[in-house]
Specification:
elongated; disordered C terminus; 5-stranded parallel sheet; alpha/beta; DUF1707_SHOCT-like; 30% strand; DUF1707 domain-containing protein; disordered N terminus
Length: 215
């Protein structure tokens, strides 16, 4: 079988250069492939941890390729990204996209008086930009981010609404892996952009540092 497996999980052509240095984006793509494979039962928890550690420390594309040679391409796992996803809901329960969900190229929100939460913490990033067309009235639109994800709200029109944008300090060298562009209109309610909430144990581990800083 000819050709190497690229960081995206697809086979590369004979003219590729596997000894090229791997970028942060290359590592992130392999991490997504590995997480999808584990979610589909193709890797055990121990295998996933081992390969994730190797992916994050890989220096070349060849090292990354070795981690996915026995895995099917991303599209074959059933997690192929859609071009457009539309969410349409009126006066009903909360709408949530959490865990390992595959991001489309464009997301349309046509929602009236329903809470909406889009959690990107473990989302599978398939494009460098996600456009969200917002047509939402009432309640709160919450976007949960992680380092490397930026949210642009400049194209969003607000009517009796406001935006609360909170991000944890990150290394300025952290590459941008996803740009989320909000466009359209949000009437009443709020738009909240925030990092994941710390668990009790994470809060407890940080507490001594905070106390010592005050001494």
């Amino acid at each position: 079988m000819s050709g190497e497996i690229s960081p995206t999980g697809k086979r590369s052509g004979p003219g590729s250069s596997p000894e090229l240095r791997a970028s942060h984006a290359d590592r992130d793509r392999v991490v997504d492939v590995l997480r999808i494979a584990a979610g589909d039962g193709l890797l055990t928890a121990d295998e996933l941890d081992e390969r994730l550690e190797a992916a994050l420390s890989a220096r070349t594309l060849n090292e990354l390729a070795a981690l996915t040679t026995d895995l099917p391409p991303v599209g074959a796992t059933g997690a192929e990204a859609k071009d457009v996803v539309r969410i349409e809901q009126v006066h009903s329960g909360a709408i949530e996209r959490v865990g390992r969900w595959v991001l489309p190229r464009r997301l349309e929100l046509a929602v009236t008086y329903c809470e909406v939460t889009l959690d990107f913490t473990d989302a599978v990033i398939t494009h460098d930009t996600l456009r969200i067309d917002v047509g939402m009235t009432g309640k709160t639109l919450t976007l949960v981010t992680r380092p490397g994800i930026v949210v642009d709200t400049d194209g969003l029109q607000l009517a009796h609404s406001r935006v609360k944008y909170r991000q944890t300090p990150t290394n300025p060298d952290t590459p941008v892996t996803l740009r989320v562009e909000l466009v359209g209109q949000k009437a009443h309610g709020r738009v909240v952009v925030r990092p994941p909430r710390r668990s009790f144990w994470q809060w407890l581990l940080r507490r001594p540092t905070a106390l010592s800083a005050r001494d």
